[in-house]
Amino acid sequence: MAVKKPRLLVYVIACMIVGVSAAAERSEIGWAELIPPQSAIEDPFTELGPEQLDALRKILRFEASKDTTSSFITPEEAEKLRSQLSGDGLDVDRLFEQREIIIQERRAQSTAVNPNVIGIDVRIPGYVLPLEFKGKKVTSFLLVPYAGACIHTPPPPANQMVHVNYPDGIEVSGLFTPVWIEGKMIAKFSVQNVGLSDGGAQVEVGYEMSPEDIYLY
User: Fold this and answer.
1) Between the chain's N and C termini, which has fewer beta carbons within 10 Å?
2) pLDDT of 51-82, one tens digit each?
3) Of 175, 121, 118, 172, which Cα lies nearest the Cα of 146?
4) Measured between alpha carbons, how far is 208 from 164 in angstroms, rounded to an integer?
5) Looking at residue 69, what DSSP letter applies?
6) Taking the model in full, what pTM does it have?
7) Class of domain 115-216
8) Which helix (H) or strand (E) holds 27?
């Protein structure tokens, strides 16, 4: 028995060293690092004045309305606005086409993940937005960058949210408990249903983690 104790002690110490080494290799990252390098989006609307932008909004709302008779402006008023913008040298139809391109480019940027963090052991702080419970413990949640995300405001971009699966569960003190999570970051797009007191919402998520450890911030 006296011989086994030193061996056991050596084994325990070795395990502790391995654990410390693994933690040291884990990279602490911030939310900005989840966003990949992005190119600038050409936006002609930044060069327009307030009155021109307001006219474009009115025309767009009028033309998007299925029932133009109930629109807040008449067809004659919409055509007058078009003529005014044309007099300013603006092509309304071309601007609306560019608007759709900008929407698609911004969506692509918001869902793009950073390949530099994929498959890497990371440590990242955030707030818990619960999705599923097991008893009093949260087993599935969204890690979000700030308290209040997805509540009464547009949700963060998909690449600013992480879907976390943690079967062991973690007890939270309330909505948006601050935590650290540690483990490998995975690129996995998903749409999650967030249940709120005033209803529910579907949000797009760009990352996923099944962390090795979670602890309070």
Assistant:
1) N
2) 999 999 999 999 888 666 666 888 999 999 99
3) 175
4) 6
5) G
6) 0.77
7) mainly beta
8) strand 27-28
